[in-house]
Each structure stands twice: as C-alpha cells, then as structure tokens.
Amino acid sequence: MIPNDPLQNILYIDLSRNRFRVEPRPDLFEKHLGGTGVAIELLHETCPAGVDPYAPEAPIILATGPLVGLLPLASKAVAMFKSPHTGNLGESHAGGRTAVAIREAGYGAIVIQGASSLPLYLVISDGSVRFRDATTLWGMRHANTAARVIREHESGAGVRTIMRIGRAGENLVSYACVKTETYRTFGRLGLGAVFGSKKLKAIVVAGKHSLPVTDRRAYRRVYDQIYQAAIASPLMKKYHDLGTSSNVLPLNAIGGLPVRNLQAACLEDATRISGEGLAEGYLGRRLACAHCPVGCIHIAALREPYANEPYFYKTTMISYDYEPLYALGTMLGIADPADFLRLLDVVESWGLDAMSTGVVLAWATEALERGLISTQETSGLPLSWGDAATYILAVRNIVEQPNDFYRALARGVEYASSVYGGQEFALAFGGNEMPGYHTGPAAHLGWLLGLRHSHLDNAGYSIDQKPTDPPPTPEALVDALMKEEQWRQILSSLVICFFARGIYTPEIVQAALEVAGLPRDAAALEQIGESIYRRKYAFKVREGFSIEHLRIPQRIYETPSSLGMLDEEFMRRALVHAKKRLEG
User: Fold this and answer.
1) % of the chain surpassing 70 pLDDT
2) pLDDT category, 454, cuts 50, 70, 90?
3) Mean pLDDT throughout 493-518?
4) The pTM is what?
5) E-strand spans in 460-576?
6) What is the helix (H) or strand (E) element at residue 239, kind and residue range?
7) What is the 3-state secondary structure (H, E, C) of 547-567?
8) What is the dihedral of CA 78, 111, 45, 34, to 10 degrees?
C-alpha cells in the first residue's frame, strides 16, 4: 500500500461502553483489496459463530475500497453483518456519498459492536467519534425527519453522509433497511433491524482527508479513460435517460415480468408504470452518486391537492427504479403510477426494503384469496390486487405488528408461509424474497446459489435473455454463474457500481489498482475473487446454510417464463453440481 494511506485504518466502535479505537490493518487491504473482501474477513474475526443477529456481539461492518474517492463510478459502500432475515450472510451496498465520506474521514472500514441501553447516533469526524443522545429521534414516523434534525445540529454539510433507520428498524422488522442521504438505501437482508437492535438510530460521517496516488500523471490518464468510457457508453446513457425502470417494457414484452405474485409474467397495462410512462408524467429530476458522471437516480414529483383545498398542492419527491416498480407495482397488480408512488413513499418512510415488502404483500394477498387466512388475520383489511390504499394500511401494520399475523409478515414470506401455509407460492430463495425477473432458469438459479440470494450476485437474468443454441447444461450454467460472481467480488471490493462492470474490465481494474498503490495482475485478481467468494460461502455454511435445504417455490414451474416452462429436474441437477463445486 501507499505509506500512510488512510484506507488501512479500521475504526472499531463499542456501543456498550461508548468507546472507540483505530487500528491500522494494511494486511487486510493488501490481501483482500477493500470493500467486500475486507468486510468478510472482519466478519469472520468479530462475529461469534451461531450468534443471534440481534445480540450485542453481532457486528456491523461498513467498508470502502481503494478506488473510492479517486475514480468515477467507484461510489458504493459495503455493509456486512449477520442477517436477521436469513440467519446467515448479510451484505448490502449503497451509493450516494457514504463510501466517499468514510474514506475521506480517514478510514477503510468501520466495525460497530455492542449495544446501547438508550437510543443514540454516532458522529464520526475529525479523528473522533461522538455518541449523541437520540431518544427524541426514536419513534419518529419518517426516516427522513430524523435526518433533517441531525443535519440542523451537526457540522459537515457538503462532505458528510447520514445513515439512519425508520420505525421498521426500531421495531426489528427483519427486512428493515438503512437510508443514506435522501434517496439511497442499504436494502435487503435487514441491516436496519440490526441497527435497531443496537439502539443505533443514525451514523453521521464527515471528513476532508486527501487521498494519495502513486503517479499523478498516470492517475489522470486512468481517470480520463474511465470518465470518457462512461459518458460515451450507450448503456450509461440508458441509465441516465430512464434508469433501470427501462426494463419494464422489454421484460413485459418477453413474458419475464412477475405479475400478481407471479401468477402471470405480463401486465396488461405495463406502459403506464414503465420507465417511459414515469418519465413523461412524473420525472422531476435526476441525481448522481458521488464521483459519478452518469446520474441514474430518477426522482418522481408526485403532485397532489390538499384535502378540501383544491388550489393548494403538496409535491413529494420520490426516488424510483426497476426493483420497486416490480415489487410494489406489477407484483401487486398496480399499474397506476400515482398509486405506485404513494405506496413506495410510505414503504420508504417506514424504512422497509421495497422488494421484500412487495413480495410479502403479494403472498398475503394470494393467501387471503385462497382462504389460508381471513380478514381476521389482516385486521379487517381486504387485500386485493391493485388496491394501493389498502396495501398502505397493511405496510403500517407490518411495522407496528398489532397481531401474530403481522408479526409473521415482519419476518418475511419464508417464515409467514411456514406458519400459515402457501409455501408453494411463497417466492423466497434462500430466505430472501425474489427479485423482479422471471426470465428463465439462470435467474432463479442465480438467486438460489448467490451468496446474498440477490439479483446483484450475478446476472442470471441477463444470461436468460441471451439464449444459446444448444442451451447450456445445468452444469455449464452453474459454472457461468459462479465465474461471474467471483469477478463481482473484485468489483465490490474496489468498490465499483455494478452498472459500470462493462467499463471496469480486468485491464482497467489493473491500471486503476496500479495508481492506487495495490498493483495486481490478472491471475492475482482471479485468485482474490475466488478466495473472497469462498470465504463468504464458508461464513454461510458456518451459520447453518446448506444447499440441500434450499427450497424452490413451486410457483416458478407453474408460470411460463420468457424461455418457456422451467424444468424441475434441470434445476435439481444444477444444485447438485453447485454443491460439488463448492464442497467437493
């Protein structure tokens, strides 16, 4: 590493004792680069085997990478923890300013342990950690309200990040998320609930450390090469113009868009809730993460009249992209964009993961249709497809948990279906609710075998949409998914936005690492990627994960995908091969 590079510094915070210390760990970054690679090693070091995810001993790890703050599109922060949602590996990424703020505050990673007896928030700046009383912030309905109060009382405007939870995290909903900045999120797998278990309402990080490079001229060349590739890329233009919401119409056209709990894969009126439809009727502005020239964050302006005041309007700014459009739109049979935006705003305000919330509500709707539950369980709410107003009331109940049914929903669809039945249409993979692609076998295998059971683990859905003749065997498909996932460990260790994976080729990565002081050749990168992959898998196995116990929802075999009906034997063969690859 470059001497005195602040990347090597690990900040350890003990919430039980209100203490902190800084430990230089250049060994971690030399061997594992940063981000995901460093985070999984710190998780192995600090997380006791078999610990309850809500126990004080269960750590929260936030990590950045060597390219953060130096190069375009290196803008993600990695959070790693034991997931209360699945019981094993929890990993979430967020854009915005978080990674840059941590890096410029003088740290490569932060490890938070212990638990406070009273609500608090942390202020990390100027080489110090301050423990602030958050009693008055605890219980605020909207996650952004707490952030606004903190902004008014803390310094660092323009260079800080504010991570915070909403009521869902405080009430330990197992898929609660952590909001950062105004429109970015550490979603999936329940980081917000782990914050809540520690009485940690928020974290503020700010700093102005300069970041070293090995050669300024070489650095400028690499920077310009990446920047020019980004602004000239047709794919990046698509992300700027419409964002990931541009996926709605193509997926709908090929029959790969999950609709009404995957009872169908094509929505009759998808144009209204498409990226094109939202851009024409609701797009208010675009934003970019720090050090990103693309600007893929799309913000809708929802303009609504106040009750009994026809000439006075309230305008709500709501960030949207494909995954919420699927989960809180098509999955629930909602095609009206205003209804979708209202529901999304409520989900975000409570601090819930949008994808898990949508899949949970879809399962509950079908369970009510089938008579597995009644309105007695739903507290009188007649859940039905397309009824956003009723879903908004149900979301509040998931957070407040007034009865056993909503307490079950607050633990996810895997748990709720194990109690009330309907597992055949409970769309979870490895305990995590499904993403929005019914494109074929590669998508579903990608979530089953992915280390986070997420569409970001690998692009199985992309493989499905580029069919080959002959089609790949189960074994070849698993090999391809694993190969890509191992390379993604490199990208998430640097930490690169996955939208830029086509720009950050192995050659560009090598050049970037050279100027960052961590030179690696292609063979070394391949070895590091595989090592990180296996370390993450080892943590999952240590915490009870087993390929043999993976449940495949029967629903995916009943609804035609974009490649036709899925073959159950094909999927089983693939899992057998994956087990041999990973454990043989």
Assistant:
1) 100
2) very high
3) 96
4) 0.97
5) none
6) helix 234-241
7) HHHCCCCCHHHHCCECCECCC
8) 40
User: Domains of the chain (ranges plus CATH)?
Assistant: 6-206 (3.60.9.10), 246-412 (1.10.569.10), 439-502+521-583 (1.10.599.10)
Q: What is d(CA 152, CA 287) in angstroms, rounded to the nearest whole number? A: 23
Q: ∠554-560-562 over CA atoms, to 5°?
A: 125
Annotate 364-428 with DSSP letters as a single string. HHHHHHTTSS-TTTTTT----TT-HHHHHHHHHHHHH--SHHHHHHTT-HHHHHHHHS-GGG--E
For residue 173, count other CB atoms closer than 10 A to its CB.
34
Report CA 271 to chain centroid distance, whole Å. Answer: 26
Strand-pair partners of 202? 121, 164
- Please give, one letter per residue, the 3-state secondary structure of 130-153: EEEECCCCCCCCCHHHHHHHHHHH
Beta bridge partner(s), residue 302:
316
- Rounded Cα gap, residues 70 and 223, in angstroms: 8
Give 182's pLDDT tier (boundaries 50, 70, 90). Answer: confident
Which of 431, 362, 530 shows the shortest CA–CA distance to 53? 431
C-alpha triplet 542, 417, 395: angle, nearest 5°: 100
* CB contact set of 539 (below 8 Å; sequence gap of 6+): 40, 43, 44, 47, 88, 89
Q: Which two tokens stand for residue 345?
A: 């705003």
User: Is residue 9 within a helix (H) or strand (E), and if so which, with residue range?
Assistant: strand 9-14
pLDDT above 80: residue 310: no
pLDDT in tens, 153-172: 998 888 999 999 999 999 99
| CA dist list (Å): 424 to 227, 262, 430, 555 | 47, 12, 14, 6
Q: Where are the alpha helices (DSSP H) in 94-198?
A: 98-104, 143-153, 167-170, 191-197
Phi and psi dihedrals of 178, rounded to 5? -120, 125
What local confidence, expressed as pLDDT, does residue 307 receive?
82
Dist CA 377 CA 365 (whole Å): 12
Residues 6+ apart with CB under 8 A from 42: 10, 28, 59, 61, 63, 80, 109, 111
* pLDDT tens column, 110-145: 999 999 999 999 999 999 999 999 999 999 988 888
Tokens of 269: 């009126």
**Contacts of 554 by beta carbon, 8 Å cutoff, 6+ apart:** 424, 425
